């Protein structure tokens, strides 16, 4: 009888124990939200802000807990957006390149702090480019190019503008001359130019093209079969169109030259695999992610781009805003967060991971209106109130 009583109590205890609900998504602050509620609230945001298409992926325990596509791949044909549609990844390209650079540094094939000039047998300004207008001939009389390092290129401290035809203030400069705006290593200023320079030097030194390196080190091992730095024939009937603020489709631009700063095509499923891998490595204290997420430069600008990028502030002091190798870094009560955005005509993306908690989120959109709901989506999905939304210029639609 005593044994029966113990068995009965055990069964009662088991039946009353909390059961993990697959419909409940855990957020940073310990609260949770149901997938049903998330579906409803996301759809409301999309409809209100006129976002053409959006995919949302949320990670719990470093793996995908929620993943769904909303809206359209093409506003005119009304083709539904899916998780398998190929997006132009824009600057998400840089996060993948950061992972490759960290691997090379870990293998001691690249010294992050050695001047880039040491890796090639000609002055950097004389280095040839497939497209001549992309070369650095214009700085041949500015010796500061000899100070440039891989770490500076990856953490946006080269002193170069984002692109040579756009000034730091965001003004179009048709002459497109590359120049230093400050001494390398002394300040932060987002620069695709610096990253492209590093890519070309690594390609010459290693003897492999970026696409070849990425395929061997990232895409093939992680089975990212619909991801590439150059356009592939298999993408032809699988891509989604970008859309303007008026939800007009934008003609597809096809890239035939790999660009570390922003040529990657990828799907939500593929890029989520990449993020899950990075989260797992970081949670395991991988030497590679330690290199990638080492803080390199404290950021004090009011905004990341435009005129306010030249003004200083302490607004992001509490999150210790910083930059690693191709990834932004911030501090929170739940450990460091590592983020990367992607922005181009018709496409707006954002990802942030908190490996200490196993929580993260990936937002991918084919709409120029998407960033107007990013702040709300981050809070709704994972209670991320730490992303510097004003610095990112993620101004909510109801505040414009």
TrEMBL record:
Domain Beta-lactamase-related: 39-370
PROSITE patterns, alphabetized: PROKAR_LIPOPROTEIN
InterPro entries noted in UniProt: Beta-lactam-related, Beta-lactam/transpept-like, Diverse_Enzym_Activities
The protein's enzyme class: hydrolase
EC id: 3.-.-.-
Gene3D superfamilies per the UniProt record, alphabetical: DD-peptidase/beta-lactamase superfamily
Entry-linked Pfam families: Beta-lactamase
A GO term for molecular function: hydrolase activity
Transmembrane among keywords: no
Keywords from the named record: Hydrolase
Transmembrane portions of the chain: none
Protein name: Serine hydrolase domain-containing protein
């Amino acid at each position: 009888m005593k044994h029966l009583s113990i068995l009965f109590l055990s069964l009662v205890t088991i039946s009353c124990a909390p059961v993990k609900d697959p419909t409940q998504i855990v957020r940073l602050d310990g609260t949770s939200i149901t997938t049903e509620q998330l579906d409803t609230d996301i759809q409301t945001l999309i409809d209100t802000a006129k976002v053409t298409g959006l995919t949302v992926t949320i990670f719990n325990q470093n793996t995908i807990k929620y993943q769904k596509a909303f809206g359209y791949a093409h506003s005119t044909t009304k083709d539904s957006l899916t998780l398998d549609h190929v997006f132009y990844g824009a600057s998400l390209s840089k996060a993948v390149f950061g992972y490759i650079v960290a691997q090379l540094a870990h293998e001691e094939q690249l010294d992050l702090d050695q001047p880039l000039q040491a890796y090639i047998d000609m002055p950097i300004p004389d280095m040839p480019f497939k497209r001549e207008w992309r070369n650095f001939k214009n700085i041949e009389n500015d010796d500061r190019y000899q100070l440039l390092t891989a770490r500076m290129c990856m953490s946006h401290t080269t002193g170069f503008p984002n692109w040579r035809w756009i000034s730091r203030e965001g003004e179009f400069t048709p002459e497109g001359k590359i120049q230093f705006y400050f001494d390398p290593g002394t300040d932060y200023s987002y620069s695709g130019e610096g990253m492209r320079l590093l890519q070309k030097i690594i390609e010459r030194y290693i003897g492999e093209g970026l696409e070849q390196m990425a395929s061997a080190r990232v895409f093939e091992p992680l089975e990212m079969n619909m991801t590439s730095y150059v356009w592939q024939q298999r993408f032809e009937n699988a891509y989604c169109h970008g859309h303007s603020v008026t939800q007009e489709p934008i003609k597809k631009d096809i890239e035939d030259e790999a660009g570390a700063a922003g040529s990657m095509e990828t799907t939500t499923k593929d890029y989520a695999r990449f993020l899950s891998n990075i989260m797992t490595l970081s949670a395991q204290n991988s030497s590679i992610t330690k290199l990638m997420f080492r803080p390199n430069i404290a950021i004090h600008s009011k905004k990341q781009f435009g005129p306010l990028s030249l003004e200083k502030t302490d607004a992001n002091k509490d999150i210790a805003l910083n930059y690693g190798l191709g990834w932004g870094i911030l501090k929170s009560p739940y450990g460091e967060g590592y983020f990367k955005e992607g922005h181009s005509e018709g496409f707006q993306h954002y990802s942030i991971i908190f490996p200490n908690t196993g929580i993260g989120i990936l937002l991918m959109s084919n709409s120029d209106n998407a960033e107007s709901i990013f702040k709300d989506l981050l809070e709704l999905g994972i209670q991320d109130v730490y992303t510097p939304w004003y610095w990112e210029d993620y101004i909510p639609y109801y505040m414009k």
